[in-house]
Amino acid sequence: MTSTGVWLIGARGNVATTAIAGARALAHGETDTTGLVTAREPYSRLALPDVGDLVFGGHDIRERSLLETARDLSSNGVPSPDTVQAVAEDLRRVDRRIAMGAAINCGASVDDLADRGSLDDRLPVSEVVDRIRDDYRAFRRNHDLDRVVVVNVASTEPPLDDPDQYDTREAFERAVANDDRDLPASALYAYAALVDEHPYVNFTPSTGSALGGLRELAEDRDVPHTGRDAKTGETLVKSALAPMFAGRNLRVRSWEGHNILGNDDGRVLEDEANKAGKLASKGGVLDSILPDLEHNRVRIDYTPSLDDWKTAWDYVHFEGFLNTEMKLQFTWEGSDSALAAPLVLDLVRLIAHADERGEGGLQRHLASFFKAPLGVDEHDLSRQFALLDEYVDRHAREAAVE
Amino acid sequence: MTSTGVWLIGARGNVATTAIAGARALAHGETDTTGLVTAREPYSRLALPDVGDLVFGGHDIRERSLLETARDLSSNGVPSPDTVQAVAEDLRRVDRRIAMGAAINCGASVDDLADRGSLDDRLPVSEVVDRIRDDYRAFRRNHDLDRVVVVNVASTEPPLDDPDQYDTREAFERAVANDDRDLPASALYAYAALVDEHPYVNFTPSTGSALGGLRELAEDRDVPHTGRDAKTGETLVKSALAPMFAGRNLRVRSWEGHNILGNDDGRVLEDEANKAGKLASKGGVLDSILPDLEHNRVRIDYTPSLDDWKTAWDYVHFEGFLNTEMKLQFTWEGSDSALAAPLVLDLVRLIAHADERGEGGLQRHLASFFKAPLGVDEHDLSRQFALLDEYVDRHAREAAVE
Amino acid sequence: MTSTGVWLIGARGNVATTAIAGARALAHGETDTTGLVTAREPYSRLALPDVGDLVFGGHDIRERSLLETARDLSSNGVPSPDTVQAVAEDLRRVDRRIAMGAAINCGASVDDLADRGSLDDRLPVSEVVDRIRDDYRAFRRNHDLDRVVVVNVASTEPPLDDPDQYDTREAFERAVANDDRDLPASALYAYAALVDEHPYVNFTPSTGSALGGLRELAEDRDVPHTGRDAKTGETLVKSALAPMFAGRNLRVRSWEGHNILGNDDGRVLEDEANKAGKLASKGGVLDSILPDLEHNRVRIDYTPSLDDWKTAWDYVHFEGFLNTEMKLQFTWEGSDSALAAPLVLDLVRLIAHADERGEGGLQRHLASFFKAPLGVDEHDLSRQFALLDEYVDRHAREAAVE
Amino acid sequence: MTSTGVWLIGARGNVATTAIAGARALAHGETDTTGLVTAREPYSRLALPDVGDLVFGGHDIRERSLLETARDLSSNGVPSPDTVQAVAEDLRRVDRRIAMGAAINCGASVDDLADRGSLDDRLPVSEVVDRIRDDYRAFRRNHDLDRVVVVNVASTEPPLDDPDQYDTREAFERAVANDDRDLPASALYAYAALVDEHPYVNFTPSTGSALGGLRELAEDRDVPHTGRDAKTGETLVKSALAPMFAGRNLRVRSWEGHNILGNDDGRVLEDEANKAGKLASKGGVLDSILPDLEHNRVRIDYTPSLDDWKTAWDYVHFEGFLNTEMKLQFTWEGSDSALAAPLVLDLVRLIAHADERGEGGLQRHLASFFKAPLGVDEHDLSRQFALLDEYVDRHAREAAVE
Q1: In a domain, A399, yes or no
Q2: One Pfam family this chain carries (chains A, B, C, D) (predicted)?
Q3: Would you say the C-alpha torsion C57, C62, C68, C69 has a positive or negative sign?
Q4: Residue A116: which pLDDT band, with cuts at 50, 70 and 90?
Q5: Is cis: bond before A184, omega within 30 of 0?
Q6: Nearest residue in D to B257, CA atom
Q7: Is residue D33 a part of any domain in this protein?
Q8: Domain identity same for A203 and A84
Q9: Are D309 and D232 in contact (CB under 8 A)?
Q10: Which residues pair with D96 in a beta bridge?
């Protein structure tokens, strides 16, 4: 098996910390694979890199150590104190591999997180890109890795006003050369990955590799990339429930979704600008599955006392036979990081598998992981899983032929 | 198009009344097809009998007129007073086609509903069967029907102690001949249908055509039948949500389902004996989708003030990555009859279609309609719909070839 | 018994229509007194005017007849079609007593409701006041009433920027004389009532009689007035539940309240300006009962499909012994008008009683009816009821002495 | 200040362990007084024994050490690992003061808990009583205590078939002398306390001091006692919410309460016999506050995965003005022990205060703590708190006079 590095943008955040701690806890036999999609049948049949063999590094603009973050999270329930202790040395080791990151156009609330400024404070865009490329390269070289998967798990940026201006690779590269200060950090990270053929995963609603120019670049270099906005909680439930209404020809009149959460992501989303991108991808799921939906609102509010936990209340007002008005309500209470972290590991494993087999470009079979899957107009969770099932079947058949 | 009769066992109950009133309201343009699965794409492409052309009749042990039942239901919201008025004459007409039914082994609480006794009070089993066959035949002849679909929508019977004794057609027919008073009414109705090649739908958890002997008979005569226990509310939601947990490898520890309802069905289910069958089919869905589920309880309670409405509260305690304990809760509030009635019409249309095309035996593609689909071990709602999609595709291809 | 007129500001709205229809339905024996606080022990012992004897009139800026409004409401469930029919003639009679109203500073969304403009479109403020006073007087004279109670049930205005400038009667009257176009309609209606000694009830969060100058006027004239913002749903529950946490020394960390509703009030509250006043009075209840509450948010959203119904979801995150984090959630589903209408009748009866006995000024014993009770800093529902109990006891003792 | 001992019946259970751990954590400054009713104004003004000065001992039929129980609880969230460590030595010290208890007539599921049998296995009833009295006395003497408060926190017994046979002190004492094996353990513990003038608190639904004969004894000896069935969760919420419906003259049609919990208490309540007593006191609250309630059901189910947590779902179907049907639902999620433990400490402090002042017999001012307060027919939580407020006022006035 080849060796795989995982480079996390936002490496000191809750999701990254939980993913690293979880991977190391698995390696030490301190926890099991519950919550890891790639650990279940039939996906477990793919020849994926072992979670315990993944090597972690990353960028961040914060100074707080991974161990401190893990302890903060632990005081709120996840991971357990025992787990934190078991992986403390691993976290310290990864800490030394975290480089200073960029935060350009991430919004004021992300800037507030930066303890010692960021790359873009001092450098033109083209040099920021060079520094990022150097960091990726050094990580690969220092750890003798066969490949580095770059994963964006940083806080959500505000959406770009005019993404179409970067619709070609040429336009994007010219903007970098001309020090275009409208380019958001997530796109620079993605560019730096794709141009050097590192597989790229955009776990967030930020721009990342979604720009036309970067999609073109990924095709040119035949490097796999995927995204956008991992589907971890309320939207996951929506994508499972909405097809039920459609299937039974029940007319949904209003779907209200009200989310409260208390971590840094919640604080950043307090900012209306940053929230806009998130709401767009959360809302899109229902619009796709229930095209006749009259009223579709999603709210995300910051409730500090919840810390890393999030609660969603959804209220579905629907009409049945003889115009009967009926209701479904649900509440979902989960740990943001415990829901997200295993999906980071799943995506790393699956995109590394694709990269090894030379399957570049958009990874449509990964749609089930995302609220706004790039290049796939399928939001029904079951059908998204069917795409992954087919991928596994195909590889199983190929393996059998060999 | 050929003409289709619908013979309802339990014709004066809420589900039957709402199905008849709804079909007639559709015929008069008083309502739309919301809630009717066969009215949506792609199922609407099948050459199904028009809802407005269906001719209704049935058996019951109650005296109350359909119009009285419809008005009672209307005072509780569904159908609207305007709808009841629009179909009043139709209901009176169907009333005259309702014959006295049988209630053998339906339990004491069903006996309480019988206003003037039932067939089995006075007759040996074999004569009860003969009378039922005569009733079916007379209905077909009097209304010049190409086929009669028999649908069991009567209150739930207690489960049979030893169903295996009726495992062959020969054993069943011998029991009828020997006046075996353990045979439940639902099986007699099913036998009378299948032996004369009337398609049969068991909408309830009662025994119906599930006995080995009746399945054999259906094969012998090549008559289509389907069942068991229509999936209208809480279990429908379960079959949409449980695959999400399985898909994401989230370990469900406990799934509590608490149902309250206030109609006659609720009153009959107060009786622990009658409730047993219902609980078995409701519980089976989760056991199939989540084989490692530690704790799976379903409660059904009678709450008179709810009348024909039912509310379910489900509490799902699950574990995610790093053994994180999380929760999903939902409440579902619906009109029992408004949820069930369109499915009666869907099933009649689909089984009539099968019968016309000579597709006898178990109808596996109808699994999505049932809590305990006969002959299919698939409870995932999306996969059940996929079975119906394939059926439609196949017929579309055949039609294209012709 | 003396005769009592009820002059409703916003007479064509849902609350007014339901109050009138309900009072007349009671008069005709078509419904019972459920929901009417003054109909229960011990309040029923007070010598209050009979609901059936109340004479209704009012102002509005809309043209739609009461009967049309009642029918619209009825299609959504309340009142029943039978009730509407029973009171149709009464509604037509009241319709003829509704005069054109004022809408100054009620916000753009209220202006949108005005079918034919409003008084203030054409007249200086002082003449608007004169017209209103004339309307009150004519109503009293034409129906030979002993007293007229003026009740504001109009849509919520935006809050005043600088209410302190009207802190004395003299300042208020000077503003009227100087055609101060910052004065809101609700204050003009209240002024016109108080200056001519009509008891006044502010059922809404609008300014009404809350200005210092109007409170002074009420004292001068010894005329009873009360308000502000009737407590009908979510806030009622809060005022019952919050004392439980305080009583048990449980520390509430966050209280999230999310309200959705679909009627005109909901539409008007879509406007952030109009919503501000409502949120202030809804939030104040918790701040008073739970002074250490860390986080208190109330949202009100417009969900058109709900029509006159409102649903609230409240999520209470609290801490108990040994810093244990626990949660209470509730959902409340009610008809806005059916909850509000009986309280209008209660308040009319109680303030008429006070007026008859010469009890002018603020009516502190009516605190239980309001989210922001004028002149009383008590939000605990039980203690508010205790104030009313004491009032009844005092009158009972006085009656016994006589 | 005088010294107070606390003798816990069921001393190794979750509630006792949490109460002891919590008291010691407070003594060490490891936690604050959140959740302790006597720590808040105005109750904190009473001259109560300090929580940190309480000396603990007790009876149990289990062998497991307090520290083991505390660690088990801690793995489920409460108390925290840090707290357990801080009080570990204290728990070990209390462990040595726990004597073997009695379990007569506690039901088969309690018997299952007994690791090494119980007192009543070997001894006649009169000797069981003597042994218990000796244990109380030895505890007092060994720790040089001014008083010992006996608190029953053992698992719920099945209710007595014929409690009236013990309606006088004489009848009770004769039964003890005659070795009447129908006497339940809780009554023996209560008798042993009262006869030697130890104040007694019945925290559970078991019989305890509720028998007529024991109430007579308490009067004779002028020893304070109180009970029955501490109000910690769902019923607490009910007693806060039900008065709201009554106050607003809203007619509650159905109140469904569904409780799930996973600790030993839950397991014991699986036994229908043991559950009967619990359901009676839980149901009584609503019957008292809402005498016209049509339908009142409480269910308690055992859901092992919840461990020491309990969740309640309550569904309230009520009718308002114009016969409008509306709904309130709530879910309550709390730690059983963290809710109960501080109330144990509150009751000990308050009954010790009463005892010191010679206030014997039933303690009516403690009604707010119980589901079925002995000797008080008041279930409205606010009015129950008012009784305690009056008690504090009276003592404050007396102290001022002195």
Answers
A1: no
A2: Inos-1-P_synth
A3: negative
A4: low
A5: no
A6: D258
A7: yes
A8: yes
A9: no
A10: none
Q: Are residues D131 and D197 in the same domain?
A: yes
Query: Beta strand D200-202 with D224-227: parallel, antiparallel or unpaired?
Result: parallel
Whether residue D316 contacts residue D328, with contact meaning beta carbons closer than 8 Å, is answered with: yes
Cα(A142)–Cα(A29) distance, integer angstroms: 27
Identify whether residues D257 and D345 lie together within a single domain: no
With beta carbons less than 8 A apart as the criterion, state whether C9 and C19 touch: no
What is the pTM for the complete model shown? 0.95
Same domain (yes/no): A68, A195: yes
Whether C46 and C353 have beta carbons less than 8 Å apart is answered as yes
- A360-386: per-residue pLDDT in tens? 999 999 999 999 999 899 999 999 999
Contacts of B18 by beta carbon, 8 Å cutoff, 6+ apart: A321, A322, B70, B73, B78, B79, B337, B338, B340, B341
* Phi–psi pair at D290, nearest 5 degrees: -120, 75
Is B256 within 8 Å of D301 when comparing Cβ atoms? yes
Mean pLDDT computed over B38-44: 95
- Amino acid identity at B230: A
Higher pLDDT, C63 or B113: C63
What's the ipTM?
0.95
Distance from CA of B200 to the nearest CA of A (A): 22
Query: D17-37: per-residue pLDDT in tens?
Result: 999 999 999 999 999 999 999
Considering only CB atoms, which residues of chain B are within 8 Å of chain D? 253-254, 256, 258, 260, 294-295, 297, 299, 301, 303-306, 311, 313, 315, 317, 327, 329, 331, 333
- pLDDT for res A1: 58
Listed residue (D21, D361, D106, D375) closest to D228, CA to CA: D375
> Tokens 């004028």 appear where?
C374
Rounded CA gap, C79 and C96, in Å? 21
**C-beta atoms of D317 and B306 within 8 A:** yes
Residue C400 lies in a domain: no
- How far does Cα B171 stand from its chain's mean position? 26
Rounded distance, CA D319 to CA D321, Å? 7
Q: How many independent structural domains does chain A possess?
A: 2
Q: What is the CATH number for C348?
A: 3.40.50.720
pLDDT at position D195 is 97
Domain co-membership, D293 together with D369: no
Q: Which of A292, A314, A335 delimits the end of a domain?
A: A335
The C-alpha atoms of residue D110 and residue D310 are separated, in whole angstroms, by 20
C-alpha torsion angle, residues D333, A22, B248, B333 (rounded to 10): 10
Residue D92 lies in a domain: yes
- Statement to judge: residues C80 and C139 lie in one domain: yes
What single-letter amino acid sits at B283?
Answer: G
Question: If you compute the radius of gyration of chain A from its CA atoms, what whole number of angstroms results?
Answer: 21
User: Which residues, 6+ apart, have CB-to-CB distance to A321 below 8 Å?
Assistant: B18, B22, B31, B34, B35, B36, B338, B339, B341, B342
Asked whether the beta carbons of residue A305 and residue C294 sit closer than 8 angstroms, the reply is yes
pLDDT in tens, C132-179: 999 999 999 999 999 999 999 999 898 899 999 999 999 999 999 999
Specify whether C103 is located in the same domain as C222.
Answer: yes
Instruction: In whole angstroms, give the CA distance from residue A374 to residue A362.
Output: 7
CATH number assigned to the domain comprising residue C252 = 3.30.360.10
CB contact under 8 A, A301 and C260: no
Q: Range of A101's domain?
A: 4-230+338-394
- Secondary structure of D101-159 as H, E, C letters: CCCCCCCHHHHCCCCCCCHHHHCCHHHHHHHHHHHHHHHHHHCCCCEEEEEECCCCCCC
What pLDDT does B1 receive?
Answer: 58
Residue-wise pLDDT for B270-297, tens only, equals 777 777 777 777 778 999 999 999 999 9
- C188 and C92 both lie in a single domain: yes
Summarize pLDDT for D263-280 with one digit per residue, the tens.
877 787 777 777 777 777
Evaluate whether B22 touches B8 at the Cβ level (below 8 Å).
no
Last residue of a domain, one of B336, B360, B376: B336
